[in-house]
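Quick one: structure for this chain?
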Amino acid sequence: MQPGDRDALWRVLEARRDHRHFGTDPVDDAALGRVLDAFRVAPSVGLSQPWHVTVVRNATLRQAVHDNFAAVRVREQDRFGGERRALYASLKLEGIREAPVGLVVSFVPPVEVTLGTTSGPSALEYSVVSAVTLAWLAATAEGLGLGWVSLIEPGGLHAALGLAPHLRPLAYLCLGHPALELHEPLLQTVGWAARRPLALDWRD
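Got it. Here's what it folds into:
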């Protein structure tokens, strides 16, 4: 490690945000490559690396992904009532069409038995999430914004993007230049939720 690495890491950790507002400038290929390179160094149970990334830059395909999102959003809005529902209707929850790059991160079920998964096979999927987190931090360090869109049906992604049958999409990520400077989580800014202190106890 080098002097200043700790401080630099914490600047990136503190600056990371879930972005939904993007500019239209393209993402530099070299910067995109460095974001994708985070998957190379990401940890995974049993060194399984059970992920596959599909890069979506075609605007027509991103519109198809947005159609998927819009249908799910209608269903989710029905889960809320009263003032909560009105606030939900005002929220911007994605930047699928604005962000010039979409990343579909899929889980690839291993063919062989994976070391370390006897008592917790879900560690394979957790490994994919861990890799996404590193890519998120890499994007932040590049001055890019990344947003995870969870309101998407995986089957719809298969249909829209022609994904291989063995892939199980776990994340659709919007990547681009952020249009807003976020000093706190956006959902906190708009009054939907607030960060809570860490739930912690000790067993000394």
